[in-house]
Amino acid sequence: MVSVTKREFGVLSCGTAVSLYTVRNAEMSFSATDYGCQLTSILLPNGRGGHDDVLLGFSSLDSIVHRNQQRFGSLIGRYANRVANAAFALDGRTYRLDKNWNGHTLHGGFSGYDQVLWKAEETDGKEGRGVRFTRTSPDGEQGYPGSLRLEVSYLLNERNEVTLRYAATTDKATPVNLTNHAYFNLKGHSGGSVANHIAQVNSTKYLEVGAHLIPTGRILPVAGTAFDLTSPKPFGSGFGSPELEAMLGGYDVCYCFGEKAGKAADSGSLPVLAVVAEPDTKRTLTCRSNQPCMQLYTSNSVSGIPGKCSFVYEKFGGFCLETQQYTNALNVGAFPSAVLKPGETYDAVTVYAFS
């Protein structure tokens, strides 16, 4: 049976208390906080009577608030990934965003959804038990139009599946692209390089990028490149290859799975986007989602970050499977639209299944 417990996690400088929720079944658990809907841990059995935490991050609220520039475990919004030149046009008007990354916008700008307190409550449904977070992002926040009503649920079932479900409605047309920036290491958060992890990504296409990793608008085949993970390969087999040079030697690539990968109504029937296995622990992570794209990132820019239990995270110390809309779709007319209109519901779901 899946259980949910709540405890105080800390107090913000304004005096507001922050909570930590732990959701567990008979074998595993995850924890998340109402500060930014951040996933703080995922504990898996280690075969020695204990558990290993396979999520990179921090142990304290203070560290999350002041040191999480890498967005470990963070909810990302209003628009995940990169927006070229920190601007976009919609319905005849140009909107200006934060220039927080080489003159562009990355992961929502300076004030992300991971830096505010959300309302939280326990929830129970067919996908498991867990926590539902809600918040309204006001018109003009981060530079985006529309008052966006958000509902984000993190759930666990008896099959060791962690489901992340995102829903949103708006009163004005606005771009929406939500994801979670969880960094995994199946050896444990202190396991070091993920070069030996065996990855398979069920996509034959990726977004070509130019300067500052901004998509050019071209969708290219992975065949014959280091991006080809259609058959299982170690991450390390691609590290340092010419295609990854502009990405600091590792993967930071957006794979495409069609305009829509699946329907959000039934998480059990979602297509498998990626499978990552760690040969020493024999742990496997399977990612299923209804999202049309997935950013694979192997912690290329992580360097010297003191994390949980004072372990220092370094380059290639984790990997992210960020399911999402097309990167910079706001400025590339050929990409499927990521604009949510009044009367519509944004409905995205991702399942991380552990075995």
Structural overview:
This protein is mainly beta and 355 residues long. The protein has a single domain (3-354), classed as Beta-galactosidase, Chain A, domain 5. Helix content is 2%, strand content 43%. The protein is built from one helix and 29 strands. The strands form eight sheets. Strands 11-12-13-14-29-23-22-17-20 form a nine-stranded antiparallel sheet, with no helix packed on it. Strands 1-2-3-4-5 form a five-stranded antiparallel sheet, with no helix packed on it. Strands 19-18-21-24-27 form a five-stranded antiparallel sheet, with no helix packed on it. Strand 18 (205-209) and strand 19 (215-221) form a beta hairpin. It starts with a strand and ends with a strand. The model has no long low-confidence stretch (mean pLDDT 96).
